[in-house]
Automatic annotation (TrEMBL):
Record's protein name: Uncharacterized protein
Keywords: Membrane, Transmembrane, Transmembrane helix
Organism: Alexandrium andersonii
Biological classification of the source: Eukaryota, Sar, Alveolata, Dinophyceae, Gonyaulacales
Tagged with keyword Transmembrane helix: yes
Residues passing through the membrane, by range: 6-26
Amino acid sequence: FASSPLLTAVVAVGVAGLLGLIGLWLSVASAMEELVVVGSLILLELSRQVARRSKGSSYHSGSHQKPQRAAENVRSFLSNQLQTACGKGDLPGAEAMMARFQKLSDEAVPISCYGALAVAYAKAEDSEKMAQCLRDLHAAYPGTQADK
């Protein structure tokens, strides 16, 4: 379940839709909705990483252990820095972290990073950059429901 990017995106869209429906009946602050969506994206990404680690038996083999662990540490650090910058509203810092992440990593940027950046753009009322961030998410994870 947790290893499929498509399922991750579908669950995230489902959570956002559910919160939208709840918002019709109850007055839920938009900041709380955004927090729940970003939190669910982070939890889904963590579950994907845990599933990937438990699936990969080469992770525990001797010669590949240190480079893989170092690469995962860099990805984790950049992800945390990007999400922290987004949380503080530091869009230039978040954009710099995203560019650095894309340059240094062979793998796609985690979905949670795209979600945090999109929410930061939404809070800054920059719909053009938010739309571009969602297009980038869709390009990084083809076949997802990110654009629907």
